[in-house]
Amino acid sequence: MIEEGARGGALQREPVSCDICGADNAGEYLTLPLVYEGEGMRFVQCRDCGHVYANPRPTAAWLDAYYDAERTPEFLERRINEHWGQCQLWVSTLAPHLPGGSSLLDVGCGIGLFAKLAHDHGWDVHGVEPNPHEAAFAWRRFGLNAIHAGRLDSAVYPDASFDAVTLWDVVEHAPSPTALLGDIRRVLKPGGVFAFTAPNVNGRLARERSPVFWEQGHLHFFSERTLNRLLAETGFAPVSSMMTPYMPVRNEAVKDFIKRYGKWAIVGARRVLNAPGLRRLWAAGSGQSGFTIIARRTGGPPMA
């Protein structure tokens, strides 16, 4: 299926089955005629497991061209200021679960900002980034030499290489989250930490049909139930799950909070708001449209 598209040229799509359970039994969930730059998207829900995903979806080749077109040097430099606060929050969220000096792989590391902050925190950081412009920016701007320009399945990492793997704002872009988490499990040590974010299909941005949430590059949308199933079937045990903002947190707000109360207070505040009884109320009232998950790789050899 080929349609006229912006940035990535003629929009190429392909039909797919549910990535969570493998069923080809989906019903219409949402169709938006004007999602991003004039293109429409159709989203379906699996009748067997409830997973929501784009179908038909843009092909991997089209998505590569789509993202490549906007990665100008000015765009990449601007992202440092836009995402510093969010990356600092991710460091603070991960720190209680990962001792200093631990080895960490950041999958989909983008411009390398989180990797840089994680390195400064004292972790031994490596990264994987499929977009060549962003990988080169991470090398040049932050001096991060341990960045693999490519996808995780093309990186030559031995089994059980890392104490932790992070996947920030990436899983919704993956053609197959199941395959991606399988690759992550392979390179993670038994008992190792897996930290990631995912869009909440029941959050406010989803309900309001925000074009930031429902856009061409987002292929998968999760509920707590489908996330738990994905983790269980790929060999991970959840440690904690917090509802968090899907869009980047303003840098000024984070810096002011850290100055006043210390960086660990951010994690404490999130835990209180995600306590039983407050979690659902907070999500409905403040539009927390994403999940931040901490999980651990279960024991045994890497999954085939």
Short structural description:
The protein is an alpha/beta fold and 304 residues long. The chain contains 10 helices and 14 strands. Strands 9-8-7-10-11-14-13 form a 7-stranded mixed beta sheet, with helices on both faces. A 4-stranded antiparallel beta sheet has the order 3-4-5-12, with no helix packed on it. It has a 3-stranded antiparallel beta sheet with strand order 1-2-6.
Helices and strands in order:
Layout: E1 2-3, E2 11-14, E3 26-36, E4 39-46, E5 52-54, E6 57-58, H1 60-68, H2 73-94, E7 103-107, H3 113-121, E8 124-129, H4 132-142, E9 147-149, E10 162-167, H5 177-187, E11 188-199, H6 204-207, E12 220-221, H7 224-233, E13 236-244, H8 251-261, H9 264-273, H10 279-286, E14 290-297
Parallel strand pairs: 7-8, 7-10, 8-9, 10-11
Antiparallel strand pairs: 1-2, 2-6, 3-4, 4-5, 5-12, 11-14, 13-14
Helix pairs in contact: 2-3, 2-8
The average pLDDT is 84
| CA-based gyration radius | 19 Å
Oligomer: single chain
Classify the fold: give the CATH topology.
Answer: Rossmann fold
Give the helix/strand class: alpha/beta
Q: Biggest β-sheet, characterized?
A: 7 strands, mixed
| Name of the top-level CATH class | Alpha Beta
Count structural domains: 1
Share in β-strands = 25-35%
Number of strands: 14
How far apart the termini lie comes to 33 Å
Name given to the CATH homologous superfamily: Vaccinia Virus protein VP39
CATH architecture classification: 3-Layer(aba) Sandwich
Regions with pLDDT < 50 over 5+ consecutive residues?
1-6, 250-254, 281-286
Question: Helix proportion of residues, in percent?
Answer: 25-40%
